[in-house]
Structure prediction request, 549 residues.
Amino acid sequence: MGLHRLDGPMLRKMIIAGTNALVADKRRIDALNVFPVPDGDTGTNMSLTVLAAAREVEKQIGGNIAAVAKAAAAGSLRGARGNSGVILSQLFRGFAKSCENLDTMTVGDAIRALDGAAATAYKAVMKPKEGTMLTVARHLAEFSASIPKPQKGSPRNFEDFGAEALAAGYDILAQTPEMLPVLKQAGVVDAGGEGLLVFLQGAIDAIHKEEQPIISETKEDTANFAALSNISHEDITFTYCTEFFIICAGFEGVREDEFKKYLDGIGDSVVVVCDDEIVKAHVHTDHPGRVLERAMEYGQLDNLKIENMRMQMGEISQNAPAATFAALVTGKEVGYVTVCSGDGFVEIFRELGVDYVIEGGQTMNPSTEDIAHAIDNVPCKTVFVLPNNKNIILAAKQAAFLCEGKEVFVIESESLPQGITAMINCYAPSPAESFELMQASLATVRTGQVTHAVRDSCIDDTEIHQGDFIGLLNGKIILARDSLISAATDLIDMMIENGDEILGIFPGAEANDATTDALMTYITTNHPDCEVDGKIGDQPIYYYIFSAE
Prediction:
């Protein structure tokens, strides 16, 4: 017999079950990370993204297919972390768009939705690569469309369809090492594609299970959902930062303008963003009760958050560096948001004039919503965002899209030294000129990093053994040594080129003073023409980060 038509409750059940499967398997997927550095996070990013989707889906008790799919898309959009999470959120979004107006779903509807999901995800990536999650998603859609229809009068069931589609998905996943040489060298399949299939396998398996799954998340997952960002710096006119979602349809247009005008009359920093049947609202006001009463005239409220900014200001004024606090109280036309990890780097960026530091990075990518929240809370119409990690750039761009009413520039900084250089070059007559100047400055920086290998590997003909100290130049592994000092000195020699004037050294949380002093002596002896600038970074994972300009 089998299941021939999905309804909303079954799709809800499948999404939660798929989420639980991915959460349970995230560490194995993390371990598929191509580079043998201790920062594999594809499984973690994808699991946190689907957890955000599942949390929204969980509320859809009795909803139809369209409602459940839309809830999943909305949750994943705001919870997306890292490139893998952003791409996954776009798969949810394309799936939901294809499900509009559907009460229930046939296999034929599912095939069209899979095609819409893949097409939407491909459009979201500037230069899509084959051999990735995108390839797996597209192949699933193409194979599904090619499955012969059964004889007339015998409709296809989801169990058989799902089994055939998943088999095809695992088949193309096994071929990803042949599409991306770096996967073949590392002896792994694409982690994102694996994560997608784990989610779909969990979803299909749920069809036969009678029990209703509940979201399964660890204490670590719950902690990761907490805001990673520190308190933003702003000149406080009103006391309460008030944020919430309104669940309603047809808000765009007259009602949106009316609500914005009302909020502007009793507060400032007004942001109202419409996304289909979800409205995100943000305002600083002395009367949050009035705001919520007016909002309830339009629909139900969700994700309500009210913060007393004057109490937070007291904490900031006692702890913030003088330069940061001065910028806070004088006010600025242009604001800056950055992502970084390590107390030393946080201090460096604050001294450079950054208004909002999101603490995260290689091991913990902030979500789209984390970045959007930071942008919203910088009291400037123009905001620059520095991701400082190539795996956060897509999420930053997606966050910029969500923040209506502000001019947002995303500087495509892939490392912390690039972000520092961009901030040093941020001053120009106009924001557009600043963006060009900051973006161009990234090419003047070479970034070196020293960490340790967590497994044996071979990357670009470099033999790596577990426990080796490895050196990366601009994100590419170029050496492996049996001692920290030899890895660091050899990397420095390879980084410094004729004409370099400055070498920055940022010791991490696990660096020791003796090794740092030895490195400083080595540089002054072997590269006497190079000026050395040493500042504590206190970053995790990397013993040292170097920058050459």
Observations:
- The CA atoms of residues 411 and 436 lie 9 Å apart.
- The domain at 8-225 is CATH 1.25.40.340 (Serine Threonine Protein Phosphatase 5, Tetratricopeptide repeat).
- The chain is about 50% helix and 15% strand.
- The chain has a mean pLDDT of 84.
